[in-house]
Design brief:
By secondary structure, the protein is α/β, with parallel strands linked by helices. The protein has five helices and eight strands, in the order βββαβαββαβαβα. The chain is about 35% helix and about 25% strand. The strands form two sheets. The chain has a six-stranded mixed β-sheet with strand order 7-4-1-2-3-8, with helices on both faces.
């Protein structure tokens, strides 16, 4: 497993108008994919998708489905998100759902079609899931949030991984004296610890 590429994904989701019950709630999911190249340094790609009427939970699942499907081959993936729903589901809940024939103890599994689409895509990669607190100053998470809101409000779709604007974004933020301690170093000593193998979709 240690010979597989090490890829970092930072993802977030947005659902606008959650306070309304009588109108559409446009949503977006977006993120940043990065890996270290010995000659080029950090290589980064962005992604974003949207839905005209959705939920935060649906978009959280799509925030994982899009980048994991876009990776060309098996990779060690460190997936960072502020969605407890996504992290808890992929590290704990899916195992119970699968054992019970894709039922929760209280009934049907929410967003079942998306979970069943995500599982085989995610199973291609050894995955380490990381939760971070949202809106707490994590640069890549804040950037993913910025992209997700943009996708939701303008109903945008990147069509897969595209060249990233993260470096321009972080430079602008640092000019405003934000994220001044952000100095991305090579991941030479990163300790990768894969989560439990996923059940079949």
């Amino acid at each position: 497993m240690s010979d597989l590429p090490l890829v970092f994904v930072y993802a977030d989701e947005s659902c606008l108008g959650n306070q309304f019950k009588d109108r559409a709630r446009p949503g977006g999911a977006a993120g940043l994919v990065e890996f270290w190249h010995p000659q080029k340094g950090w290589v980064r790609r962005d992604f974003w998708v949207s839905e005209p009427d959705t939920t935060n939970n649906r978009m959280a699942i799509r925030s994982a489905l899009v980048p994991l499907a876009a990776l060309k081959g098996p990779s060690r993936v460190v997936f960072t998100t502020d969605s407890r729903y996504l992290v808890d589901a992929m590290t704990e809940w899916v195992h119970g759902w699968a054992a019970r024939g894709w039922q929760r103890k209280t009934g049907a599994v929410e967003n079942l079609e998306l979970w069943k689409a995500l599982l085989p895509v995610a199973a291609r990669h050894p995955l380490q899931w990381r939760w971070v607190k949202g809106h707490a100053g994590h640069p890549q998470n804040e950037y993913a949030n910025f992209r997700a809101i943009q996708a939701a409000s303008k109903q945008l779709d990147s069509g897969g991984l595209v060249p990233s604007k993260f470096e321009e974004w972080i430079a602008e933020e640092q000019e405003k004296e934000r994220y001044l301690d952000f100095f991305p170093m090579p991941p030479e000593r990163f300790q990768f610890k894969a989560a439990r193998a996923l059940p079949r979709g």
